[in-house]
Amino acid sequence: MTYLGFKARLAAAGAVALALAACDDRGGRVDAPEPAPLADLSAMSELPYAAPAQVDYRAPAQGYAWAERAYGLQRAVYDTPPDYGFEYDGIEPLVWETDDDWVMYAEPWDEGYRYYYYEPGAAYPYFIRDDRYGYGYGAGGVLIAVFDIGGRYLPRETVYSVAPVAGRYYARGHDLRSAAVRAQRIQVTDQVWSQRAPLVIRTADPWLRAARDDRDWRAWRERDQDRELRRFEREAERRAARTRDWRERDDRREAAVLQPSEPRWRQEPGRREERGQRLEAERQQQVSNQRREQAERQEQREQAQAARQEEQRQARAQQRAQAEARREQARQQLQQAERQQIRQERQQAQQREQADRQKAQREQQRQQAQLERQQAQRQQQAERQQREHAERQQAQQQQRQQAEQQQQRRAQQHPPQQARQQQARQQQAQARPAEQQGKPAASRERRGKDDGRGNERKD
Asked: What does the alpha-carbon distance between residue 416 and residue 308 come to, in Å, rounded to a whole number?
C-alpha cells in the first residue's frame, strides 16, 4: 500500500468520524467512555520502577495550557510521516520534530502507541498520553493536571490516584529522549509508514476530537485566543506543503509506464479508475476538511478579534473614566488649593491685624509706662522737695533751739544782763507792731504839731 492508499483509508475514517459527530445532539461534545478502574494500571508491570510523581494540582485555567500544546503539536504533524525512528529496548519509536525543535515521540505499546511531547531542548516531556489519560507535568516532573481520553479535566483525587503511573511514565520519557540522542536514526520508508500509519492515526484521532469537542476546553481556547496553537501554524504549513509535493511526485510516477513487476491493479484500467475516484474523494475530503478548519480558524479569529475589540473598547472606556477621574481629582485639588490659599490669606490678614493690635498695645503700654515713670519722677521730686523743706525747717528749728539754748546758757551765766537783754528784746518785739501801727499816727501827729507850730508862728 502506498502513502496515497493510506490517505484514502484515512479520508474514509474521517468521514465516519464526522458523521458520528453530526449525529451527536448534545451540543457537539463527544463523551468518551468511562475510564477503566484506576486499579487496573497495566503500565506498572511493563515499566521499570520509579517513584510516584509529586502532585501540585492546578486549576483548569492554568492546566489546559499543557494539553493544548500537546494537541497543537499533534495536529500540526497529523497524518504526516515521521522524520525518523530509532531502536530502543527492542522497539522502534517514531519521532516528529518541528523546525523550532518541538518533538513528539510515538512509542509502540499494547497494540497502540503512547505519546511523549517535549519542549525545545528539554530532556523530560511536558505531556504524556496513553489510551486512557493525558498527564501534564510541571518543572521537576510535578504532576499538575490529568485529562481523560474525552478531554475532560479530571479532579484532584484522580490526579493523586494516577501519580504512581505518572512517575514511571515521566522516567520513561527521559530514557527515550536520552536514547534518541545517542541512537542511530532510522529512515521510515513509505512502505513502513503505510503499515504503521493507520494505527498512529487511530490512536491520535480521539485526542484531536477531544480537543475540538470538549466544551470547557474549547471555551478555554477562545479565552486564550489560540495562543498555544499559533506556535505550530508554521510547522503545519510546512508539512502540508511537503505532503503536496510528495503527492505530485507520486502522481507523476503513476503516469509513467507501468513496469511488469508492479501490482496487477496498476495494470488494469478499472482498478486505476477506482483508484482515481478514491484519490478524488480523498482530495475533496481534504479540501472539505481544510475549508472547515479554515472556517473554524476564521470564526475563532473573528471571535478573538471581537473579544479584542471589546477589550479595547472596555480599555478605552476605562481610560476615559480614569481620565475623567483624574480631571475631577485635579479640579477638586485645585478647589482645595484655592480654599487653602484663601484660608492662608485670611490667617495672614488676621495675623497682621493681631500683630498691629499687639504693636499698638505695646506702644500704648510703652506710653503708659512712660507716663507712669514721669509721674513717679514728679512724685519723687515732690517728695524730695518736701524732704528738703522739712529738713530746712528742721535745721532752722534746730538752729533756733541751739540759739535759745545758747541764750539760756548765757542768761544763766549773766542773769541780770541777760534779763535786761531779754526784756529789751521783748520790748523791741512788742514795739515793732506798735511802731508799725503808730507810724501813720505819729506822722499825723508830727504834721499836726508842725501845723500848730506854724500856726503858732503865724499867730
From this structure: 153
Q: Where are the alpha helices (DSSP H) in 24-133?
A: 43-46, 60-76
Q: Report if residue 55 sits inside a domain.
A: yes
State which residues form the domain around 202.
3-30+41-256
Evaluate whether residue 423 is within a structural domain: no
Structural domain includes residue 345: no
Q: What pTM was estimated for this model as a whole? A: 0.51
In a domain, 173, yes or no: yes
Half-sphere exposure of residue 309, counting CA atoms within 13 Å on the CB side? Answer: 6
Strands (E), 110-210: 112-118, 127-129, 133-137, 143-148
Q: Are 52 and 141 in contact (CB under 8 A)?
A: no
Q: Where are the beta strands (DSSP E) in 406-450?
A: none
Nearest to 221 by CA among 318, 114, 167, 296: 296
The β-bridge partners of 147 are 134, 153
Residues 252-294 have pLDDT tens digits of 655 554 444 444 434 444 444 565 566 566 656 666 766 776 6
Count of domains for the chain: 1
Quote the Cα angle for 170-175-177, to 5°: 95
Burial of residue 269, with CB atoms counted within 10 A of its CB: 0-12 exposed, 13-18 middle, 19 or more buried: exposed
In degrees and rounded to multiples of 5, residue 252 shows phi and psi of -65, -35
Residue 6 burial class via C-beta count within 10 angstroms: exposed 0-12, middle 13-18, buried 19 and up: buried
pLDDT per residue as tens digits for the range 143-201: 999 999 999 999 999 999 999 999 999 999 999 999 999 999 999 998 889 889 999 99
